[in-house]
């Protein structure tokens, strides 16, 4: 009886030791619907989203025309406007990555600590957020688009050749497949006005 108890205790201690010593993995965390006007769906299930619903990593969301949808995570908020499609590629305590294949998005990043990142992928570029507020438009058919920055800065990396450009507050960048140079311009008044709705985001 005493030998059996000792063996059980040893097994128990080994299990605890293995659990404590195993490498830590980044905990996944869902995005929460914090604002919804109109209709939006999870593409994998066809389920219609509602306020305070969760959207998990790897799920794709599609909005109907005239819809406004806010998804909020620990690293920031992500607004999809009508006729948009996006996938939550990565979402954990250290990294948030959204793949936007079509439509308009607004980003309001949280205060990112060292080692944390928030990325927006389009078919042609990756936008790396640096504590900022910005807007992006993606046309999936011809792979064109626009990024405009309201606050902070966004680093754009073109996927085809890894060319990088930094867009700062009040600036914009138009993306077209036939444009070899990434030319920054002053953001249009209409673009800056459209980004004012970021103030409504949580």
TrEMBL record:
InterPro entries: FecR
Protein name as it appears in the record: Sigma factor regulatory protein, FecR/PupR family
Residues covered by the FecR protein domain: 80-155
Matching PANTHER family: FECR PROTEIN DOMAIN-CONTAINING PROTEIN, LIPL45-RELATED LIPOPROTEIN-RELATED
């Amino acid at each position: 009886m005493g030998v059996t108890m000792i063996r059980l205790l040893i097994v128990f201690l080994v299990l605890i030791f293995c659990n404590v010593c195993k490498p830590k993995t980044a905990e996944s965390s869902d995005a929460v619907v914090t604002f919804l006007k109109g209709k939006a769906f999870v593409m994998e299930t066809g389920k219609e989203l509602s306020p305070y619903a969760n959207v998990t990593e790897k799920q794709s969301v599609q909005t109907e025309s005239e819809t406004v949808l806010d998804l909020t995570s620990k690293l920031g908020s992500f607004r999809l406007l009508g006729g948009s499609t996006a996938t939550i590629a990565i979402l954990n305590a250290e990294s948030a990555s959204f793949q936007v294949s079509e439509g308009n998005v607004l980003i309001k990043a949280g205060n990112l600590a060292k080692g944390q990142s928030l990325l927006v992928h389009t078919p042609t570029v990756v936008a790396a957020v640096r504590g900022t507020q910005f807007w992006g438009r993606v046309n999936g058919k011809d792979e064109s688009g626009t990024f405009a920055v309201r606050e902070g800065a966004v680093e754009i990396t073109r996927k085809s050749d890894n060319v990088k450009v930094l867009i700062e507050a009040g600036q914009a960048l138009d993306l077209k497949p036939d444009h070899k140079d990434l030319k920054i311009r002053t953001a249009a008044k209409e673009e800056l006005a459209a980004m004012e709705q970021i103030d409504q985001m949580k």
